[in-house]
Amino acid sequence: MKKVVVTREMFDETIEYLEQHFLVVPNQSDRTIARDELIKMLHDADGIQSYSTDRVDDGLLAQCPAIKAVCNTAVGYNNIDVDACTRRGVMVTNTPGVLDDSVADYAIGLMIATCRRMSEGERYLRAREWKTTYLKQTLGKDVHGATIGIVGFGRIGQAIAKRARGFDMNILYYTRNRVAPDVEEQLDARYVSKEDLLGQSDIVMLILPYKPETHHFIGAPELARMKPSAVLINMARGGIVDDAALIEALRAGTIWSAGLDVYENEPRLNPGFLELENAVLSPHIASASESTRRAMAMTAAKNLVAALSGEQPPNLINPDYRNNLKG
Ligand code: GLV
Q1: Are 257 and 273 in contact (CB under 8 A)?
Q2: Which of 78, 124, 232, 270 has its CA 20 to 30 A from that of 66?
Q3: Distance CA 115, CA 256 (A)
Q4: Minimal CA–CA distance to 210: which of 266, 161, 279?
């Protein structure tokens, strides 16, 4: 029977499903598995259901020669060295589609929370500082009618635009591949350059993938190009924003505020964030509705079953793995 390792706690139905097909090594207590231990667990495993906290690189693959598939329980897969997997004939899959609406809902929530200073208001109330209600209390920025600049206009970016229309927002977008005119028309979204998006948006919303080319896509020069009244929302991945530069910009008032769900080196985020009143911070939970996380877990498991049964997994990222199959 083929053996698979599941690195993080999963919903019971996912483990039960995998157990119908494989000898499963689960981690239902969700304890932290050190890299050396993970390598030991994987040395004779055929597949792995991984999570974004697992680093799957060439060094690991070299020591785990039986692995044929790495099935990530996330849409992003920057934790996996896909080129190394391809070179070694290992399939890589992700979980696109099932989380788009939940992430888009969260994007809108984080945008409103940031523009309307919701967590600052709650901190003030919990600190028992609320003595009276007054006209100029916790003044924020309106979301309705504002210009939103969405960077990355794939499924999630478009789902955010669809919601933004409901707030009568003026929608700009920038992405590597401009979308078809009928999609632009349907979403009432205007394609602009990165520079124009940064200069014209009241809210800059990042929802692009993290890769070497997008490392520090937003750094000091980009922040300087934004309006002093602008709000930056990063729901995509740590590393897309230069966190030190952002902290400096938030301190200096180069931009007004930021709403963040992802960070460089998370969960050990730059402590400078914690001192800022003008940042709304959440711990990488944009997709974390129960039904969506259940769907992500099952999607990854289905990819693993297909991959190890000789079928093409539905969400295969690296079809070129076939060119490097051994034997
Ligand atoms: C979450 O961050 C994901 O990539 O699914």
Answers
A1: no
A2: 78
A3: 9
A4: 266
Instruction: Name residue, tokens 């289905």.
Output: 302
- Amino acid at residue number 262: V
Map tokens 């099932």 to a residue: 98
Per-residue DSSP letter, 277 = T
Which atom of ligand 1 is nearest to 262's Cα? 2
The whole-model pTM stands at: 0.95
| Domains of the chain: residue spans and CATH | 3-96+290-324 (3.40.50.720), 100-281 (3.40.50.720)
Nearest CA to ligand 1 atom 3: 74
Q: Report yes or no: 198 and 169 within 8 Å, Cβ to Cβ.
A: no
CA distances from 182 to 97, 150, 282 (A): 21, 18, 35
40-75 pLDDT per residue, tens: 999 999 999 999 999 999 999 999 999 999 999 999
* Token pair of 208 as six digits: 């692009």
Q: Is 266 a catalytic residue?
A: yes
Distance, in Å, from the CA atom of 47 to the CA atom of 81, rounded to the nearest integer, reads: 15
